[in-house]
Write a structure and sequence with these properties.
It is a single chain. The chain has 14 helices and 14 strands. It is α/β, with parallel strands linked by helices. It has an eight-stranded mixed beta sheet with strand order 3-6-5-7-14-10-13-4. It has a two-stranded antiparallel ribbon with strand order 1-2. A hairpin with a 2-residue loop joins β1 and β2. α4 crosses α5 and α7 packs across α14. The protein is globular, with a radius of gyration of 25 Å. The relative contact order is 0.14.
Length: 426
């Protein structure tokens, strides 16, 4: 047996006591945070819990009954065990100590042996911020423009005109009677996130078709606002930091088509709400939206233009006519999760019209441009869609699509918007 000096023994004891003290402090901190946030942190807890619950049993055994795990061929040290246990119970510290993300694993994070999509976790944190905005949130001024004559947009004009002139009208017909079956409707047109659930009444096609989504006539002022909660989202060949090659560039192009091809009155907010603090983006965007809507009370339609984030080599591509383009996905928040039920801190009196808007867009897309849209994604929170009834959150492709594929999706998206806003129904 190797003998240890009193100094070594004392050092080991101090290390163990220090680690134990740190663990107690961390536990108390978590309890205090839990009491402060109450139910509002349940969404993020769910995603982390789901990632770790498979290893919960083993973690309990390792922490409370370590004697069963002792390797008789090596020296077992309690302080080492306690140190590792802290890292196991608080994986964010293990992640930080490992040096953070590298280019090769920038889309995923390993938590308790499970691979978790980082975009999902970040999105959950963003949603949480929306629930308890406060005066400490830095205010970001909107950057509104009505001029869509930039060279980067003009280049696309002929492509949009050619595409729209070659559109052949409806190529299929939606069977509304079949969609009266809730299960058929869900299977063919929706994807419901596991954290939430939707009722038949909420997405009943016949009821939602009764909603009036037309724009008012003879209005002097902008009626459509395009903005971006995540302005930094780009594509596989985008230059990082160049907004003209991100979803902001798509917003310019979409606004130009709506204005020039259809005579709609559009403004575009090009402000970056996620440049410095992506996880506060929804909180930054909310006050800016309020300011814009106060300045332009004629606005009836608010479009939050995004691009999706995926892992691996998944690409959302379709071909319409001779044009290869990114698929789009409409997204709705329900202000309801399975763990919390109805989220009273995120009220949305416009939810029904939000759902009618995305549903009508998706159903008309099925008739005019089959394959252009992915199923409507339903999730549990609000996403700043409560400000006006006709709010639309659109995901254009993913980071694996090219910028041109995303741009090519703007003419059919603009065409569908115009049809819905003029009162067309499937």
């Amino acid at each position: 047996m190797q003998l240890q000096t009193k100094k070594q023994v004392k050092k080991r004891r101090m290390r163990g006591l220090l680690l134990l003290f740190c663990m107690v402090i961390l536990s108390i901190s978590m309890i205090l945070i839990e009491q402060k946030n109450g139910k509002d942190d349940a969404c993020l807890q769910v995603s982390l819990t789901q990632a770790g619950n498979r290893s919960l049993y083993q973690s309990v055994m390792d922490f409370y009954l370590p004697i069963l795990r002792i390797d008789q061929n090596r020296q077992w040290d309690f302080s080492d065990h306690l140190y590792q246990t802290i890292l196991d119970h608080f994986p964010v510290y293990s992640f930080a100590l490992s040096g953070g993300l590298t280019n090769s694993d920038a889309d995923t994070l390993t938590v308790s042996g499970e691979t978790v999509d980082i975009d999902m976790l970040v999105e959950e944190m963003e949603e949480e911020n929306e629930a308890y905005q406060n005066e400490k949130i830095e205010k970001i001024e909107p950057d509104v423009t009505m001029d869509f004559s930039q060279d980067s947009i003009v280049v696309q004009r002929n492509l949009a005109t050619t595409f729209l002139s070659n559109s052949s009208g409806k190529t299929s017909q939606v069977d509304l009677d079949a969609l009266s079956d809730f299960n058929v409707l869900l299977k063919e047109h929706y994807h419901v996130d596991s954290t939430t659930e939707v009722t038949p009444d909420q997405i009943n096609v016949k009821n939602l078709l009764k909603k009036d989504l037309t724009l008012k006539k003879g209005v002097d002022g902008p009626q459509i606002l395009i903005y971006h909660t995540h302005s930094q989202e780009g594509y596989s060949d985008s230059t990082p930091g160049d907004l003209s090659q991100s979803v902001v560039g798509l917003g310019d192009y979409l606004a130009q088509i709506l204005q020039e091809q259809y005579g709609l009155q559009v403004i575009h907010d090009r402000a970056s709400y996620d440049k410095n603090h992506r996880d506060y983006a929804y909180s930054y965007a909310g006050p800016a939206l309020e300011k814009i809507l106060e300045k332009y009370p004629t606005i009836e339609v608010v479009i939050d233009l995004h691009r999706d984030g995926v892992s691996g080599n998944t690409r959302f591509v379709t071909t319409i006519g001779d044009t290869k383009m990114a698929q789009v996905m409409f997204f709705n928040g329900l202000s309801y999760t399975k763990t919390r039920g109805k989220i009273t801190s995120l009220p949305n009196e416009n939810l029904s019209t939000n759902l009618a808007f995305s549903q009508r867009m998706e159903l008309l897309a099925s008739e005019y441009y089959p394959g252009f849209t992915r199923p409507i994604f339903l999730k549990g929170l609000r996403y700043n869609m409560h400000y006006v009834p006709k709010s639309l959150l659109v995901e254009v492709g993913a980071q694996t699509n090219t910028l041109q594929e995303a741009k090519n999706a703007m003419p059919p998206l603009a065409d569908l918007l115009n049809r819905v806003l003029q009162g067309e129904k499937p």
